Amino acid sequence: VNGVDSLLFRVRLNVLGEHQGSPKFTGNIRIGVDGDGDGSIDLYFGIATGQGQTPEISFQNPTGTAADANTSPNTSALGNSYGTIATTSSNYNYAQADDGSMYGSGSNLSPNPDAFLTWSIPFSTFKSYLEAQLSGVTISLESFLRFVAFSSTQGNSVNQDVYGVDGIGTVRYDQGGGFTNYYSTTGKVIPEASTVAQAIAFVLSGLGVVVWRRRLTRNKVAE
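and the corresponding structure tokens:
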């Protein structure tokens, strides 16, 4: 974005907010990231708005000292914002989904267009804030990270559903409660455990063939 290595995020919302005829986002969307693979959220960031305020990109540290803090929706809490980025036409966009969707929303499921909320953040800023929450962990463009997204009416709690799914408030993020796969910033995905095991098995069997052939060759020379 404007020549700067950046991370780009997009969420799809089941309602298009409108203000005086123009789309306007007035809620809170947060992304939580697990930076060290221990199953808990190490940094929260996303789009924050208040009553009549212009949206901004906010970064927040997790709060709570319990062993299971920030491992599931009902154990997650967001601290005060310790860094913000102003939204501009270069790093933020809120617009109606262009596929004609009119899914029901609200208590009476009234048809309403979906919306896309898109924003970007400089990787260097993301790296700095995430490393500040970790001990001895260095984040690079090739680091494998996993994320969870949620909406909230307030900017300090997970008080609504995660990905629009009800009933997973007590489920750990790493046990079906919302974490994505591990991704690098270049889109690489860590292979599933079964795939890794198969790859190792193939490598070991290949090494076995090489060793056996070498032994056979040595035996023939000895004869």
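(Above: one complete record from the training split.) The first helix runs from residue 123 to 133.
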